[in-house]
Write a structure and sequence with these properties.
37% of the residues lie in helices and 19% in strands. By secondary structure, it is of the alpha/beta class. The strands form two sheets. A seven-stranded parallel β-sheet has the order 3-2-1-4-5-6-9, sandwiched between helices. Helix 1 crosses helix 6 and helix 3 crosses helix 4.
């Protein structure tokens, strides 16, 4: 039987790209959305839709117990489309709540459902500045409390092998940004492909998933995951 994946955030920018990759690789995917009207789009991609709110711990736990996943993937965010500056302050508050409370609920549900692995979305632009290349061992900024919480919960969940993917700032279809917006960027297609490789290689730990040429090193993801960002002309 194929391994089962519970993908939290299946209708987000990365989730929409990731579902068909996982299905194509032979996994059975249960994908979450908070909006009932998005169920048909998940079915069309080949996933089993799960309508649930990550802040409803009881309903989330029941959903995972029904799915009985081997792997849980955390792609939940709550930021304004295109990172609209006018909405970012409120967006950061909502997103921090997902990273802290939402992640705890998801981890607790994964443990209760006896999942073996968990892969979580983090970010690669909260490092402290310093000399030389920025690696996964570079300290995070002092104010990155929600990121630390998400990563710690993922990596320390009892009985679960944890993986954290620190993505660059996303651009491409569905992100609201058509081109790289900074030196630590990542095309959404490359984010999805790196996540699939993390699933397939069963790699654990923290990985920077960013494009070449910026201050953050992607050498670990290249070496262990076998990941490479695609070259794109005109983007």
């Amino acid at each position: 039987m194929p391994e089962t994946i519970f993908l939290a955030g299946a209708t987000g920018a990365i989730g929409r790209k990731l579902v068909p990759l996982l299905i194509g690789a032979g996994f059975a995917v249960h994908g979450t959305t908070r909006r009932p009207e998005r169920q048909d789009s998940l079915r069309a991609l080949g996933a089993t839709p799960v309508v649930v709110d990550v802040f409803d711990a009881k309903a989330l736990a029941a959903a995972l117990l029904r799915a009985k996943p081997d792997i849980v993937i955390h792609q939940l965010t709550d930021l304004p489309f295109g990172l609209d500056p006018a909405q970012m302050e409120e967006g950061r508050i909502r997103n921090a709540r997902i990273r802290e409370i939402g992640t705890k609920n998801l981890v607790d549900a994964a443990v209760a459902a006896c999942a073996g692995r968990m892969i979580s979305q983090s970010i690669a632009w909260s490092y402290q500045a310093g000399d030389g290349p920025i690696t996964e061992d570079t300290p995070l900024q002092e104010g990155a409390t929600a990121i630390r919480t998400l990563e710690s919960l993922t990596l320390s969940a009892p009985g679960i092998a944890g993986t954290v993917l620190r993505y660059g700032l996303l651009y491409g279809p569905g992100t609201g940004c058509d081109a790289p917006a900074g030196s630590t960027s990542l095309h959404v297609d490359d984010a999805a492909s790196a996540t699939l490789l993390a699933v397939q290689t069963a790699a654990i730990g923290i990985f920077n998933v960013v494009e070449d040429g910026g201050p953050v090193s992607n050498a670990k993801a290249k070496s262990i995951l076998g990941w490479r960002p695609l070259e794109r002309n005109g983007e």
